[in-house]
Amino acid sequence: IMRGVPVPTAKWVTDDTEIKTEGRHKIETDNYSTVLTIKDFHDLPNVGLQVKEAKRSDHGKYIIAAKNSCGHAQGFAIVNVLDRPGPCQNLKISYVTKDSCMIAWESPVDNGGSEITNYIVEYRQPNQRGWSIVSSDVTKRLVKANLIENREYFFRVCAENKIGPGPCIETKTPILAINPIDKPGEPENLHIAEKGKTFVFLKWRRPDYDGGSPNLSYHVERKLKDSDEWERVHKGSIKETHYMVDKCVENKIYQFRVQTKNEAGESDWVKTAEVVVKEDLQKPVLDLKLSGVLTVKAGDTIRIEAGVRGKPQPEVAWTKDKDATDLTRSPRVSIETTSDTSKFVLTKSRRSDGGKYVITATNTAGSFVAYATVIVLDKPGPVRNLKVTDISSDRCTVTWEPPEDDGGCEIQNYILEKCESKRMVWSTYSSSVLTNYANVTRLIEGNEYIFRVRAENKMGIGPPTETHPIIAKTKFDRPGRPDPPEVTRVSKEEMTVVWNPPEYDGGKSITGYILEKKEKRSLRWVPVTKTAIPERRKKVTNLIPGHEYQFRVSAENEVGLGEPSLPSRPVFRVSAQNQVGLGRPAELKEAVSPKEILGKFFHFTVSFSMQSLFALFLTYFMSQTLNFISVNLSFRTS
């Protein structure tokens, strides 16, 4: 709305540019108002600026200027057309590795009239049409994308405000998901490992830096002294970290060099010192790869390895305990010797395999000897000198000596077992005996026992050692059997019996004797006394004349009564008898002193009076008929 006299003229300006009626713009001005219309705008009452189907480019500051001869006036209107944001700027992909990369960009020049709320990042592979979301909620202008190794990727990014997402900006070329590759580093530790008359053997180590590529190869070259030209000694590239340079001229001076190569290029050269190509002599050296003593369990494999050096190549021999026996003859032994090592393997080891192994390396320059001590642990051997002592009626002592072979480790304890001979069932008396003896109790008197002992170490229990059977009884015994007693005197009503002590008294003194008698034809023995006889002589009375008697004697000590002796020879009761009656008994000075016994042949020496001669024969023939009697008689006159 304008007021002024004379009628002012109106002019619309935006961005320092005057707006004229053309294109989408239409200006309608009368004496009192001016209206700027952008094409297809709806009519809005009392508004000087009307907009329909506005574009984002329509936003800005619109200025209305009115001017007449009296002066001028100016007004303005700020117009903001909201829209989606514009495209992001400067999309870049960096830090590409085999499994990730970093995506960065700048904000759109036009944010669409409202603040950017987030960014949407997507990727696709060249053979795909659809896009996959890396992230749809990114507020910063940097994001990490996870990749799959050796695949190519396109990326795109768009900004989003409250109106919606704007147009995307895409990468023009795909990126490959691999680690960045650079030129590799130089080979490490290049040296001459061996040389001969016409060859040099080079060795080196992979470079510490491979440039990001595992596909490394090497070039090897040589040159003669005083020559400027290097000669490639192989075709293509070498994958190994060693090379044998042959066809050299003996006694000539050479220099060698090696470089590393990958997809990005080649490293600098690494050179050796100048060297004369000829065969060197080096005394053998063995580097035993064993610290201290090698200890294995029985049944395990013994492995010994030694590094070998020397020129020319040494011959390696393995022996044991300075024994000249060739170990390779054993089916359990295998020996593998290469240019720089010698390996000894013995399977299913035994206790006897322990000892000192001797490794000898020999060449024309000399020899070298190394030693390896091996201990094979096994169960202990049997105990020695197993004895049973101090036997009594209910206990005994079992002693032994440790095994000759302890199995290579300390004896922890012993296991003592016992069994009764009549049952032959073994039971453990103790499984934790720590000494070399054990006191066994609770035996049953009179039973026969066998004991066995086994040693135990950390590897297990050794074989048993058994004792001879023993009987549980006191160490003292009953007396042995005396010799048969003798009758030394025969009278009318008694006989005198004497005897000798037994050879074995049972370890205790004889306390007495039991004398028994019986008639010859009787089976029952009758004690002569009710108590033991302390002496070795006894007068036996109350005998029946004309009857034959036999005697036997048993010795007794504190332990008990021993076995009886064998019976004495039969002796008869003698008395003289005539027509009137029984006369005075004859005197038998040596009645029971036999000089010879042969069947029923007796030899007596008898001394008696002449008056009793006939009574003697009469009484004798009445009691028993004998085959033959020889009597030496000495007569004396009464």
Structure explained in plain terms:
It comes from Meleagris gallopavo. Residues 87-181, 186-280, 382-477, 481-578 form the Fibronectin type-III domain. InterPro entries: FN3_dom (IPR003961), FN3_sf (IPR036116), Ig-like_dom (IPR007110), Ig-like_dom_sf (IPR036179), Ig-like_fold (IPR013783), Ig_I-set (IPR013098), Ig_sub (IPR003599). Residues 284-375 form the Ig-like domain. A hairpin with a 2-residue loop joins strand 38 (448-457) and strand 39. The chain is elongated and about 205 Å long. The model is unreliable at 40-47 and 576-638 (pLDDT under 50). The strands form 13 sheets. Strands 18, 19, 21, 22, 23 and 24 form a six-stranded antiparallel β-sheet that branches. It folds into six domains: 9-79, Immunoglobulin-like; 89-177, Sandwich (Immunoglobulin-like), CATH 2.60.40; 188-277, Immunoglobulins (Immunoglobulin-like); 282-376, Immunoglobulins (Immunoglobulin-like, Sandwich); 384-472, Immunoglobulins (Immunoglobulin-like, Sandwich), CATH 2.60.40; 486-573, Immunoglobulins (Immunoglobulin-like, Sandwich), CATH 2.60.40.10. The chain has 638 residues and is mainly β. Helices cover 2% and strands 45% of the residues.
